[in-house]
Amino acid sequence: MDKDVSQEVTREEKMSAESILADIKERGSKFFDSEGVRDGLRDRGLIGLLTPGF
To answer: 38 CB contacts (<8 Å, ≥6 apart)?
Structure first.
């Protein structure tokens, strides 16, 4: 049963990551300048998750 739970979490995390990537792509190239990426990730609360050194 524990395996099923951990697999479910992994699936949800993967879906979450895919939705974040899709959201970034929808924002277009403006998002990809270095300031835009940093600000966008910080706004979403992901800055520490993805790049602890930022």
So the answer is: 47, 54
Q: Determine if the pTM surpasses 0.85.
A: no
Domain spans in the chain, listed from the N-terminal domain onward: 2-50
Residue 41 CB: number of other CB atoms within 10 A?
A: 19
Question: What is the per-residue pLDDT across 25-52, written as a single tens digit (0 to 9) for each?
Answer: 777 655 555 565 666 656 666 555 655 5
CA–CA gap between residue 27 and residue 40 (Å, rounded): 10
Q: Give me the residue label for tokens 């993967």.
A: 14
Paired tokens of 53: 């050194």
